[in-house]
Design goal:
Blueprint lengths: L1 E6 L19 H10 L5 E7 L20 E4 L2 E4 L25 E5 L22 H7 L4 E6 L2 H15 L4 E5 L8 H13 L3 E3 L1 H6 L1
Parallel strand pairs: 1-2, 1-6, 2-5, 6-7, 7-8
Antiparallel strand pairs: 3-4
Helix pairs in contact: 3-4
């Protein structure tokens, strides 16, 4: 039972969005090719869905600027621009993504007191989104992960999939993903590979 997880392919993380990932929109045609391939029994997506004034936003901390380190609930926190606020255009999935073919959209990041990079749980690892239970209930044994951004939400989603669903085979689809910095992408790939996640491209994904 093979599943595809599309991580945060949203307007906010594409050019013109509030927290754009370089070339973020270029993952869309690759993701659509994967969706259309018929290789996956299940296609799921995660969606950042922040309330206004989320604690990870620099604007919620007087004197802080985006991309500075700050503190949230007593722990170090990267301060982000306001992004993917629920019920806004910025939070919507990219309009060219074939979202009508997605079986489940898992929203995340709704708790204003903790950030949530992973599609599976918050950064404190206290609250699960329920996505792992859903995938296990569906009998998923193989999971391909891709999307935005490699060095944050994609990496943490892939690592959590491996940890929260023991025995599942997890692969990272590199050309269907983009990261914030080249250094961050390289470090994320090294980390994923060290944990046993296979690094592949979409051609290999489509080959099975």
């Amino acid at each position: 039972m093979r599943a595809l997880l599309l991580v945060d392919i949203q307007n906010g993380f594409c050019p013109g969005g509030n927290l754009p990932v370089p070339e973020g929109d270029q993952v869309v045609p690759v993701a659509n090719k994967l969706i259309d391939s018929g290789m996956y029994d299940l296609v799921v997506a995660s969606q950042d869905w922040h309330p206004p004034g989320h604690g990870s936003f620099a604007s919620s901390h007087p004197g802080k600027k985006p991309f500075e380190m700050g503190v949230l609930s007593g722990k170090p926190q990267m301060m982000w621009p306001d992004h993917c606020v629920k019920n806004t255009l910025d939070a919507e999935l990219h309009p060219a993504l074939k979202s009508e073919e997605i079986d489940l959209i898992q929203q995340k990041g709704e708790n204003p007191l903790v950030d949530s990079y992973s599609a599976f749980r918050d950064n404190d690892q206290d609250a699960s989104t329920g996505l792992s239970d859903f995938l296990l209930d569906q009998g998923v044994t193989e999971l391909d992960v891709c999307g935005l951004a490699t060095d944050y939400c994609v990496k943490f989603s892939a690592l959590d999939a491996l940890e929260m669903m023991p025995g599942i085979k997890v692969r990272f689809v590199e050309d269907a993903s983009r990261g914030i910095t080249p250094e961050g992408v390289a470090a994320a790939i090294k980390d994923m590979r060290a944990r046993g996640i296979e690094i592949i491209d979409s051609q290999k994904a489509l080959a099975g």
